[in-house]
Amino acid sequence: MDQARVEFFRHALGAEEKARILAALDETILTTGKYVAEAEAALADYLGIEHVVGLDSCTAALHLALLAHDIGPGDEVIVPAMTFIATANAVLMCGATPVIADVDPVTGCLTPATAEPHVTSRTRAIIPVHLYGLLCDMVGFRRLADARGLVLIEDSAHCIEARRGDVRPGSHGDCACLSFYATKNITCGEGGALITRDAKVAERVRTLSLHGMTSDAWSRYGKQYRHWDMDELGWKYNLDNIRASLLTPQIRRLDEMCARRRAICARYEEAFADIENLGFPRVDAPDASARHLFPIWVDAARRDDSIADLQERGIGVTVNYRAIHLMRYYAKRYGYLPGSLPAAESIGARTLSLPLFPDMTDEQVERVIDTVADVVAPRAQTAAVR
Ligand SMILES: Cc1ncc(COP(=O)(O)O)c(C=O)c1O
């Protein structure tokens, strides 16, 4: 490994996870079974939520959350323009129409005020995204959803650890969807979960995650054979024991890893506070964000060159995200034009994400800061950063 290079992300899987995955391989049941149940229980305990269903991605969780609320053709679902495409794609996957709304220019998040103008008689649900790890205004969204009879599904792919008062992922939405994708706060390569306070929704999601079968292999294993049946059409989205074996140790370390990411973000914010032409989304209270990503917002005209310069100097960077309504597919299918959702478009044109992961050393953090200052700020200002 190039010692000088600072990767954009590096997972924190260690000896315990490696030992557990080997142990999982020694079991008879490799698919959904005791390791999945254990990770679900650990997450339920951590989040203080009644029901957790392990799935093979957050995309699957979003898709099944919509299906479990009977959302389909003819229905509209409001999603933010500043998110990963999975949020809107899941709506299309169940045959409904994603209605893409603008976001708050200061946080990048969908708000009740930016979503409400898009509510029509066809609207069935809203999917707020806790972007970069920052909890959306879930009290406001709950109020709006209740007033207009809507389902509230949280895209919590970036956020497990955050709290704002009594708001946590899943506390105010009808469901929340988590991701354990390769670069997420906890990871098993590919994976996800749906969390909910509603036992019926959890049960339906579990059934829909396995073809709509009335029982799975684990619950049948070792028992006298009985025929299973199928009541409705489902998908094949279940999580397996091999991947789930990696999750429980990371769930135990969630707060510790988040604390390190918060400290790195605090240092980034301190160092970048006075640099002209460099902004970042505002986090209103330290605990309110899980600090999944640290994006900076630079001059749109210089953004792509800045990315190339940073990469050339050994700093791993990426873009989270360009506004989704201007992706070719959505622009063509729904006729979205540039200028229609200005806050998301502006963020999408200016944003780039810096390295952020718990095992980053202080030296690596300072190297990122120095290089960013050199690339983004006029040279005369660089001294102020050090
Ligand atoms: C905001 C957001 N939503 C949904 C997803 C989809 O997650 P998964 O890859 O687990 O399907 C991602 C993944 O990058 C994401 O960032």
What string, H for helix and E for strand, traces the elements in order?
Answer: HHEHEHEHEHEEEHHHHHEHHHEHH
Sheet of most strands: 7 strands, mixed
Q: Could you tell me how far the N terminus lies from the C terminus, measured between alpha carbons in angstroms?
A: 27 Å
Q: Report the structural category.
A: alpha/beta
The proportion of residues in beta strands is: 5-15%
Show the helix and strand layout.
Elements: H1 15-25, H2 34-47, E1 51-55, H3 58-68, E2 76-80, H4 86-93, E3 97-101, H5 112-115, E4 123-126, H6 138-148, E5 151-155, E6 175-179, E7 192-196, H7 199-208, H8 217-220, H9 241-244, H10 247-252, H11 254-272, E8 294-297, H12 300-312, H13 328-334, H14 342-350, E9 351-354, H15 362-376, H16 379-385
Helix pairs in contact: 3-4, 3-7, 11-15, 12-15, 15-16
The structure holds pyridoxal-5'-phosphate (PLP).
Pyridoxal-5'-phosphate (PLP) binds next to helix 3 and helix 4.
What this model shows, in words?
With 386 residues, the protein is an alpha/beta fold. It contains 16 helices and nine strands. The chain has a seven-stranded mixed beta sheet, with helices on both faces. Strands 8-9 form a two-stranded antiparallel ribbon. It is globular, with a radius of gyration of 21 Å. The C terminus is likely disordered. Bound molecules: pyridoxal-5'-phosphate. Pyridoxal-5'-phosphate binds next to helix 3 and helix 4.
Summarize it.
The chain is an alpha/beta fold.
Structural key phrases:
binds pyridoxal-5'-phosphate; 16 helices; 386 residues; alpha/beta; seven-stranded mixed β-sheet
